């Protein structure tokens, strides 16, 4: 029997709609699940604690779910059956141009090919229409709001990494620019450095709750 830890870190709470989608998921045959929620305003700290909890309790997988992401019923089933070390569902980004666009940007990233040798994030987002309807594609990074990770990523491939989730390190920003900000991009950089290829499942398209992020107008100062 394979054990999956459904893992959430949140600073506030988990909305009813998110919990309802978690408990409404189809559980794959031969799998048992547990839910662990850590309250922390530091997402990086919370994610690292959740991984340690999964390691100490001998889980086979950790399934990161964000507290503002609504999961389709077959999320865990399809991600688990893909048998990948790291595989993501996706959800639309919150920028205003995303919600007003018929082909919105997702939370999946791919590299600027000219920067691949440096494993440098000059990423651009995949649009919704670029995803296969029911297929799996390699990606270079993703938001961690719906991500199934085999525990061997932490215990074997990245066992030399002190913290798997770090919001930003000064030397990273200096070398690579702001695209390495965020504990999700840091984690995927380490995946690529350690030979772990992340994937995304085109059929797992989640809802995304919350306020939208609007761009500020370009206003010249009056002084």
Describe this structure in words.
The protein is an alpha/beta fold and about 220 residues long. It has helices at about 15-25, 45-55, 75-80, 95-100, 150-155, 170-175, 185-195; strands spanning about 1-10, 30-40, 60-65, 70, 85-90, 105-110, 125, 135-140, 140, 145-150, 200-205, 205-210. The strands form three sheets. The protein has a seven-stranded mixed sheet with strand order 2-1-3-10-5-11-8, with helices on both faces. A three-stranded antiparallel sheet has the order 7-6-9. The radius of gyration is 17 Å and the shape is globular. Residues about 115-120 and about 220-223 have low confidence and may be disordered.
Strand order of the largest sheet: 2-1-3-10-5-11-8
User: What is the number of E strands?
Assistant: 12
**Order of secondary-structure elements:** EHEHEEHEHEEEEEHHHEE
Biggest sheet statistics: 7 strands, mixed
Provide the residue-averaged pLDDT. 84
Q: Please indicate the percent range of residues in DSSP E strands (runs of 2 or more).
A: 25-35%
Which structural class matches the secondary elements?
A: alpha/beta
Low-pLDDT residue spans: 113-121, 219-223
Number of alpha- plus pi-helical segments: 7
As an assembly, this protein is single chain
Shape estimate: globular
- End-to-end Cα distance, whole Å, is 68 Å
What level of helicity do the residues show?
25-40%
Topology readout:
Elements (H helix, E strand, L loop, with lengths): L1 E9 L5 H8 L7 E9 L3 H14 L4 E5 L3 E2 L4 H7 L4 E5 L5 H4 L5 E6 L13 E4 L8 E3 L2 E2 L3 E5 L1 H6 L12 H7 L6 H11 L4 E8 L1 E2 L15
Parallel strand pairs: 1-2, 1-3, 5-11
Antiparallel strand pairs: 3-10, 4-12, 5-10, 6-7, 6-9, 8-11
């Amino acid at each position: 029997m394979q054990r999956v830890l459904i893992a959430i870190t949140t600073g506030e709470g988990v909305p009813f709609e998110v919990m309802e989608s978690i408990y409404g998921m189809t559980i794959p045959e031969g799998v048992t699940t547990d839910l662990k929620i850590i309250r922390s305003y530091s997402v990086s700290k919370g994610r690292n604690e959740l991984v340690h909890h999964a390691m100490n309790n001998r889980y086979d997988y950790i399934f990161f779910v964000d507290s503002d992401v609504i999961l389709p019923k077959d999320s865990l089933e399809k991600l688990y059956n893909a048998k990948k070390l790291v595989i993501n569902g996706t959800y639309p980004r919150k920028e205003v141009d995303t919600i007003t666009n018929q082909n919105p940007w997702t939370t999946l990233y791919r590299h600027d090919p000219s920067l691949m040798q440096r494993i440098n994030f000059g990423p651009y987002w995949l649009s919704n229409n670029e995803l296969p309807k029911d297929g799996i594609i390699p990606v270079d990074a993703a938001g961690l709001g719906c991500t199934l990770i085999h525990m061997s990523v932490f215990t074997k491939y990245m066992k030399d990494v002190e913290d798997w989730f770090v919001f930003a390190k000064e030397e990273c920003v200096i070398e690579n620019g702001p695209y390495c900000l965020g504990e999700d991009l840091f984690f995927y950089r380490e995946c690529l450095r350690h030979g772990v290829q992340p994937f995304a499942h085109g059929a797992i398209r989640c809802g995304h709750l919350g306020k939208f992020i609007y761009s500020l107008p370009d206003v010249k100062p009056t002084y």
